[in-house]
Design brief:
Blueprint lengths: L3 E10 L5 H11 L3 E6 L5 E7 L1 H12 L7 E9 L9 E2 L2
Parallel strand pairs: 2-5
Antiparallel strand pairs: 1-3, 1-4, 2-3
């Protein structure tokens, strides 16, 4: 099965509200690997690797606002590199 990799930057109130851990939980439900990392500008970077359908589902979840404590203003998405495939989903 072919893998899809996408990198997203989630902007808004997404740090200090459990966003990375909720993203990890949702990604694991979708059998994705990757990570959710806080960025110095207050955004969260998300790398998602898996089937096209499952990666799309995570991106839609991010755009819908993620966990209820978060307030997502925008999500920027671009293709990821095949060299970026991690073995699990982390919040590093």
């Amino acid at each position: 099965m072919e893998k899809t990799i996408r990198r997203a930057w989630v902007h808004g109130v997404v740090q200090g509200v459990g966003f990375r851990y909720s993203t990890q939980r949702r990604a694991m439900e979708l059998n994705l690997t990757g990570y959710a990392r806080n960025q110095s500008d207050g955004s969260v970077e998300v790398l998602a690797c898996g089937t096209d359908e499952d990666v799309d589902a995570l991106i839609l979840w991010l755009k819908a606002g993620g966990p209820r404590q978060a307030k997502v203003d925008k999500v920027l998405v671009e293709p990821g590199s095949m060299t970026d495939i991690p073995p699990s989903f982390t919040t590093g």
